[in-house]
Amino acid sequence: MARSMLKAKNMPTKFWGEAVSTAVYILNVCPTKAVLNCTPFEAWRKKTPSVGHMKVFGCIAYTLVNLRTKLEDKAEKCIFVGYSTQSKAYRLYNPLTEKIIISRNVIFDEDAEWNWDQNAQQEVPTPRVVSLEEQSSPQLTPTASNHSSPPTTSSSSSSDESSESDTSSSDQPRKVRSLIDIYESCDFAFIVTEPADYQEAATCVEWTQAMKEEINAIEKNKTWELVNLPKEKNVIGLKWVYRTKYNSDGSISKHKARLVAKGYAQQEGVDYEETFSPVARFETVRIVLALAAQWKLPVYQLDVKSAFLNGDLLEEVFVHQPPGFVKKGEEEKVYRLKKALYGLKQAPRAWYSKIDTFFCTSGFQKSDNEPTLYVKKEGMEFLVVCLYVDDIIFFSSSQSMLTSFKDSMTNQFEMTDLGMLQYFLGLEVKQGKEGTFLCQKRYALNLLKRFHMEACETIATPMNASEKLQKNDGTEEADVTLYRSMVGGLNYLTHSRPDLAYCVSIVSRYMQRPTKQHLGAARRILRYVAGTLEFGIWYSSVKDFKLRGYSDSDWAGCVDDRKSMSGSVFDLGSGAVTWSSKKQETIALSSSEAEYVAAGSAAKQALWISKLLTDLGCMQTESVELWCDNKSAIAMARNPAYHSRTKHIDVQYHFIRQLVANGRISLRFCGTEWQNADLFTKALNHAKHYHFVKRIGMIKLGSRGGVENNPT
């Protein structure tokens, strides 16, 4: 059947895959004796299939061009090659660009076919004269209250659109782009050109040099020694991993080649014992940035070159010689490791032990509440260091302490001084005299490109306020891999986007068996992200500097099990530093109980933040304000006599009573219109959504003026 389809339109055999896929699609909607003279589709779906949309394979098709100018063609000529498995759309092949397009807006000429005998020359677009305004550095534009009102994104309706965009193609005509956009596009293109193995990398000068630098670093650090393999000893293989490092503006920073051990071949108890190694929480990073902004101190960054190579091994480990760097005449020998290599299961633990010992012997005090946070005091001056594997961010009230710290680190390890903090774990940090702006614009752009939604229509809110998602919604099952990848990418975006926390928490519930409706909800979030790329958190110096929190719940909000949603958010006077949106573990019998449980969870977070601030030299002398909009929940926390109403609640949530009794937590009542945690418990309409977005310290990055890189 597939062969006949190809021959009917004189199509090349390279389209055999598309032909087979289309043939299978057709057979599934045709009657067959195998399922009692009905169609496989009908046997599976329990309904008669529709065939009105089916077209002749290989015919000419014209698809609508989005984002075109008035003088450009409205449609492009393509070839119909099948049906989309993700939506009610068609698969089209453009012979000029040699790309597959997924589109619903298509006009077919089923009698026509492409002339494959004639060498089709790719059309060269007429050059356009574009007047570009002088590019200027971005500006932080908060209002007098340190927060600016988020702009309204374009949308024709606040209702959800669960279907795909009409056209999904990477070669659609684009609007005039800035230089930053062009850099980011180049960045995305370069990602896929990284070598897959040594043979491919050896053909490139940059990657060859990067491998030599890695070997030199290993030998300089005295990581291994060449020996004969002892009898009955396990030997581990090595492989090269290649990554292109980028600057915050998207330009290439360097080509990095990493020699990695095949740790999966290690045996527990023989090649390694301990493997755990802590890293800084993103909450801690935000608190550090907020404190630095409050004290108007710049934050700097250091990068430890080949950090894991500094970790001392306690076990005896042997590895093969690396590909491309085998010693001539000694091919049978192996390396015995003295220090750790990337890929070894104990490598992170060995590195953390090394750097932790160095800090503790250099006068630093390790935080009891964050094992990767260190503070050093000299009289009235202080130095704060936060560690995330090999990335170090730090700030100090003393220039001499900064210089001394950099010198000591450089003497002990091979370091790269990255200057003022600009890019850290996907977070873009812009420091200025007035404050610090934290966002993930570049990551969000790449996320949209990954799912072909960079040209999608934007929407004003991330979730439809009138829609309730549930497990069994009656719609078709969606692609599990696509859905999990999409939700996972959105989850990482919440590190600087608290406005996404609730909706991402909701769509994360359906990772096991997502439906088309769930996928549509995730796509809606991406549409919201596309319209709010410039959004981020603003930290600044304020007079009313203290820890305050907001706690709220949505009683029985989950349609599937009727459990409630807990939401909380904490700030230090400016932007939010921690937030949470999580379904409660037990079923609450009333809204008061749900609010009480939510307040108990928020109280634990408040206690941790308070202790962390104390470790940083910012002790909270007053009780932490925790605002709640339910008077009954406040009464239950203050009055232990409410036994009959609270005896069935888990003991862990009664912890808040002790904190209220000893003055650690001060429960306050606030009206719903001032309840910032409302953003983390339910989907809101346009007006309420942006009201709370502004209240938690989110602003939009300005497009004019400049941000000084040196705020001093």
From TrEMBL:
Compositional bias of kind Low complexity = 148-171
- Composition-biased stretches, type Polar residues, lie in 133-147
Ranges for domain Retroviral polymerase SH3-like come to 59-120
The Reverse transcriptase Ty1/copia-type domain covers 221-464
Q: Where is this region: Disordered?
A: 125-174
The protein in question is named: Reverse transcriptase Ty1/copia-type domain-containing protein
